[in-house]
Write a structure and sequence with these properties.
alpha/beta; Rossmann fold; 2 domains; 5-stranded parallel beta sheet; two-stranded antiparallel sheet; 15 helices
């Protein structure tokens, strides 16, 4: 995703955008927090684009993918001979992003030794390359991001409190369950974008399919929405004009190696997790989705023959037809 993909239909995201606009013009280092897939990097890029540093580089480093030795060299650079294999001097990301922005993804995974050096950079505005006795001045805005709970990490000694308070401002990017008004605009945006990339006409999303998207849990947040759209477009006929619930379920089941009944059980597992966390749920909607999953599975097993599907479910044919109508299940008459 790019900064232009920033969706702000919901009140929660309008507040985020308001804070981003206000803080962009400052030189503050901004800690961005939020669950995986909520769009933390997108917020960081937007801060850069709206800031006086927009002409300068925006560089990113993912902390978990680097060892402690490598992360120091990556951030601060090194001089020739600093360690085995250092055959030349190398400029670090702080210098490379000078006058611009350095995005530190998953800052919670940084070691205590590197935390100490990072604190010095934020305090003194200077870096010391690995193997060098000299320091170099830098003017680089630091935007760290994390999905960790820093209050717990600080209590347990996993993160320095003084470094935490050197991040002068904080922005929390809310999960999709707190910004329901953004789900459909995001889905439609990804639909248009991915259709262009796949070279097909963008299909519409049926009303029932829209309700289906709104009722999903989305533990992967925005990233999961994008993935589902891509997977669904990859599974349908290129001439499909409208995406229906069955298209989304087929993509989900196909990628999870499950059938529609298993899909219902997977959804139930996710619901139980929410209950264990003390989160609220919409029980009527959940029961409706589970009923739809089992009825659609029975219809599929029965080849669309309603009398046979009714037998599988232990219902009368009349009751099954009533439920099909009430739950807006696609009726392919056989």
């Amino acid at each position: 995703m790019e900064a232009r993909d920033f969706i702000v239909n919901s009140r929660a995201m309008r507040k985020v955008l308001q804070w981003v606009k206000r803080i962009a013009g400052t030189s503050y280092s901004v800690l961005i927090t939020g669950e995986t897939g909520t769009g933390k990097e997108l917020v960081a890029r937007l801060i850069q684009e709206l800031s006086p540093r927009s002409h300068a580089p925006f560089l990113k480093v993912s902390i978990p993918g680097l060892s402690e030795t490598l992360i120091e060299s990556e951030l601060f650079g090194h001089v020739k001979g600093a360690f085995t294999g250092a055959s030349t001097e190398r400029k670090g990301l702080f210098e490379a992003a000078n006058e611009g922005t350095l995005f530190l993804d998953e800052i919670g995974d940084i070691s205590s030794a590197v935390q100490t050096k990072l604190l010095r950079v934020l305090q003194e505005k200077e870096i010391q390359p690995v193997g060098s006795n000299c320091t170099r001045k830098v003017d680089t805005r630091v935007i760290p991001a994390t999905n960790c709970d820093f209050s717990e990490m600080i209590k347990e000694g996993g993160f320095r409190k003084d470094l935490f308070y050197r991040f002068q401002a904080q922005i929390r990017v809310p999960p999709l369950r707190e910004r329901l008004d953004d789900i459909l605009p995001l889905a439609k945006m990804f639909l248009e974008k991915c259709s262009v990339e796949l070279g097909i006409d963008a299909p519409q999303i049926s009303y029932d399919a829209q309700l289906f998207l709104l009722k999903r849990q989305w533990p992967g947040n925005v990233r999961e929405v994008e993935r589902l759209i891509i997977d669904t477009l990859g599974a349908i006929n290129k001439n499909t004009k409208e995406l229906k619930v069955k298209h989304f379920k087929q993509a989900i089941c196909q990628n999870n190696g499950s059938n529609e009944v298993e899909f219902g059980y997977m959804a139930l597992g996710s619901i139980m997790e929410s209950l264990e966390k003390g989160e609220s749920i919409d029980l009527p909607s959940i029961m409706e989705e589970l009923q739809k999953a089992f009825i659609e599975s029975a219809l599929s097993l029965a080849g669309g023959v309603k009398s046979e599907a009714a037998r599988i479910l232990g219902l009368s044919r009349t009751t099954l037809i009533e439920k099909i109508k009430a739950l807006y299940i696609e009726d392919e008459e056989h």
